[in-house]
Amino acid sequence: MHDGPVARLRTVVLDCPEPAALARFYAELLGGELLDEDDDDPSWQVLVEPGGQRIAFQRAPEYTPPVFPDPKASQQLHLDLLVEEIEAAERGALALGAVLIEPHDAERFRVYRDPVGHTFCFVWL
Question: Same domain, yes or no, for 38 and 73?
């Protein structure tokens, strides 16, 4: 029997066609610091957001964005992002290049697509 966790989450990695561009989108959306972990490798970018969580962006030469909603497939992964004021957050995200994909009257979340198609939700209390 094992006491405690086997591992800890270090980084969530998103495949994309241009890591630097998507890293800048999320840096503007979430704040934080882009790390220069490997200046010689433009296929990998890392963002450390203000709470310390890491999101990395990895070049996938034949990247195909997920389809959402799609009854035949899943999103595979999406980010739930906490916001305090949904209308202001939405304006900011749209100005950065996000797309609102589920403009319904959900009471606590809205679904968006980032500039390369990954879905994310704004969630508020």
Answer: no
